[in-house]
Design a protein that fits this description.
The protein is of the alpha/beta class. Helix content is 46%, strand content 12%.
């Protein structure tokens, strides 16, 4: 009997070296016992570890698909995985095409293990919730997670990329991962008692979860499949899940009963009035453009279709470095459409427009201008974050004209689906997209003009401009001008609806 001891549960290199040496020396799978150093004592602890034989020249080769599969499957928690992989390796010597036989029991089992590991990695990406520890310069973010398999080292680089600007630790029973802004390090696992309890951000997260929970689209079984109950006890939104499910039917009925369709009818009247004043050729062209999406879709469905299509947009190179496409958000029949420049760092990570500091500034200004943010559609001229890395910081870069033009198709299709009464361009990049040409902000701001397709538009500054002003007096003065511009937008939108 050969006893092989690996350095850790994820020691693929150690397993590979040992497996190659054993197989080339004709050691049968039944003659090998695999164990992990430091694991729970077992029957073989009093037996000496095998000294691996030298690997002779002319060693055999295996398909690259096996190596890739084994790297994932070895992270599975099944203690028999090392032996299973060695048995498959042993059989591949005689049948090089074995990996193509999906019904083979060993192949099927290893594939199932690899899928389980990848699924667990995805769950870790989705269900880690950081809690804030300390304040200001001493702030650190700590999360507790209980992975099903040995995936911490596999999953950690994702968090380093996504949360590059904050120091964090992910604690698990097996292994802990830490990010200091420049590299990821690992320490032994800990108990849940060492994880932080509820923090001041918890209630914010609960309010956010409650706000995005759509009772009309609730499918409990699908939700539990995507977010299994085993993760619930570590999620701050857990306390909301049960009551939200229990009241979903009632809330959905209330949503249906609300006279929300009146806004849609008013908007239709606006469009009909505008079209009646246009030459027939222009009217027909506008109708064709407005229904560029599938003609029988509802507007909400058309927006969802656009969102899915944009997620795989490769029209310009910006998608390569961005985390994801950041599409617009808001009601399908919003009377006002706000267009910004591009997503920033926070938006790129969250996948939502205007959720960072500029978004908070915008929310405040909209409120003071008397505009309900929940009734506004917010998007960007460019849907991917353009930046230059500087250490752990990602510095924003202004999109170029070719990048703006490449992304304009999405703005045009959003506009056609929503048909707002007014479009507000926030900043020069947005103005270039909305008007189709370079438009100076200072000369144009605050003036409502008619676009060729009948929609009204105006220009103002981007809220990030206000954040960059170093002088407090100038910042207060410019902020007030920004609010006044939004008030003009609110009045223009109301006049359009009344005229309809």
């Amino acid at each position: 009997m050969h006893i092989v001891t690996l350095d850790s549960n994820t020691d693929f290199d150690g397993w590979r070296k040992a497996a190659r040496a054993l197989a080339t020396n004709d050691v049968k799978p039944a003659e090998v016992t695999w164990r992990v150093r430091g694991a729970t004592a077992d029957l073989f602890d009093d037996q000496a570890e095998t000294t691996l034989p030298e690997v002779p020249e002319g060693t055999f080769s295996v398909p690259a698909s096996f190596v890739e599969l084994a790297q994932s499957a070895i992270l599975h928690r099944d203690p028999n995985r090392f032996g299973l992989l060695y048995r498959l390796l042993w059989r591949l010597r005689a049948n090089h095409d074995l990996m193509t036989i999906a019904t083979d029991p060993d192949v099927a089992q290893v594939n199932a293990m690899a899928r389980a590991v990848r699924r667990d990695e995805h769950k870790m990406h989705a269900f880690v919730r950081f809690r804030e520890i300390g304040r200001e310069r001493e702030t650190r973010y700590v999360a507790w997670f209980e992975p099903e398999h040995h995936i911490v080292e596999l999953a950690a680089p994702f968090f380093a990329r996504r949360f590059a600007d904050m120091p964090w630790s992910i604690l698990t029973p097996d292994l802990c991962a830490h990010w200091d802004g420049s590299r990821v390090s690992f320490t032994p696992g800990v108990s849940k008692a060492e994880a932080p309890s509820e923090d001041r951000l918890e209630e914010v997260w609960r309010r956010y979860y409650a706000s995005i929970f759509n009772p009309a689209r609730l499918k409990v079984k699908a939700m539990e499949k995507e977010m299994p109950k085993r993760y619930w006890h570590n999620l701050p939104e857990t306390s909301l899940i049960k009551p939200l499910i229990e009241t979903a039917a009632q809330r959905a009925s209330a949503m249906i009963a609300e006279p929300g369709t009146e806004a849609h009818k008013a908007q239709k009247r606006v469009e009909e009035t505008v079209m009646a004043r246009k030459p027939k050729a222009q009217t027909k062209a506008h109708e064709t453009k407005a229904h560029a999406s599938k003609p029988h879709e509802t507007d909400a469905a058309a927006l969802e279709t656009l969102r899915k299509e944009a997620a795989s947009c490769r029209a310009c190179p910006l998608w390569k470095n961005a985390t994801q496409t950041v599409f617009g958000e808001g009601p399908a029949h919003a009377p006002i459409m706000l267009v910004g420049e591009q997503p920033g760092d926070k938006e790129d990570l969250a996948g939502q427009p205007f959720v960072g500091p500029a978004g908070q500034m915008l929310d405040r200004a909209l409120d003071e201008a008397g505009i309900d943010r929940t009734k506004v559609y917010v998007t960007n001229a460019v849907k991917h974050f353009k930046f230059v890395p500087r250490g752990k910081i990602r510095l924003h870069q202004k999109p170029t004209t070719p990048e703006i033009k490449a992304c304009r198709q999405w703005y045009e299709r959003e506009l056609a689906a929503i048909r707002p009464a007014l479009v507000v361009a926030l900043g020069a990049t947005a103005a270039q997209s909305v008007f189709g040409k370079i438009t100076p902000v200072n000369k144009s701001r605050g003036h409502v003009v008619d676009l060729p397709d009948g929609v009204k538009a105006m220009v103002t500054v981007h809220p990030s401009y206000l954040l960059r002003l170093p002088d407090a007096d100038a910042k207060a003065r410019e902020y007030q001008r920004f609010v006044e511009d939004l008030q003009i937008a609110a009045h223009a939108m109301k006049r359009s609806v009344r005229a309809a």
